[in-house]
Amino acid sequence: MKHHNTPIHVEHVGIAVESVRDVEPVLVALGCQKLLDDTVDDQFRWAYYRLGDGSRLELIEPTGADSFLTNYLDANGPGLHHVTLEVADIGAVVEAMEANGFSVVDYERRDEWSEAFVSPRNPTGTLFQLMEYHDAYERNRPHPPEELFVAGSRLSASDED
């Protein structure tokens, strides 16, 4: 088995819902604090919440009639959609996953972050989103680091134990 040595942690858990408004009272009752609420194109709305000292939850709601999320909810109903793992070196993690025979799809580098997805056709049955934040992510957001990042800052190679 090939593995990587890059820092990694759970950034958030994504939950597919029919309506953020209808589900938000559950998160509020759990003690969540809403950090962000935004819409991506005509595909989906995402609301991002902090729970406790660093845990994050994301609700994703379809906003278009023909989005990937509408199809997902039709097939599976509401519930766990993905687990996002923040990594310090996405290339190292992708390489390790592929070297072990796991399918990584939609690998894309953007100015602010890089992301890739580990297909749920792995033994866990879970869609993993791999996310590496770049310097521009923090610079281009009006939010303080403690709202943007688990533990207040993005992971870097210097975070290795």
Automatic annotation (TrEMBL):
InterPro entries: Glyas_Bleomycin-R_OHBP_Dase, MMCE/EMCE_epimerase, VOC_core
Alphabetical list of PROSITE patterns matching this protein: VOC (PS51819)
Superkingdom of source: Archaea
GO biological process, one term: L-methylmalonyl-CoA metabolic process
Residue ranges of every copy of the VOC domain listed in the record: 1-133
Pfam families: Glyoxalase_4
Gene Ontology molecular functions: metal ion binding; methylmalonyl-CoA epimerase activity
Lineage: Archaea, Methanobacteriati, Methanobacteriota, Stenosarchaea group, Halobacteria
Keywords: Metal-binding
Name of the protein described by the UniProt record: VOC domain-containing protein
Organism this protein belongs to: Haloferax sulfurifontis ATCC BAA-897
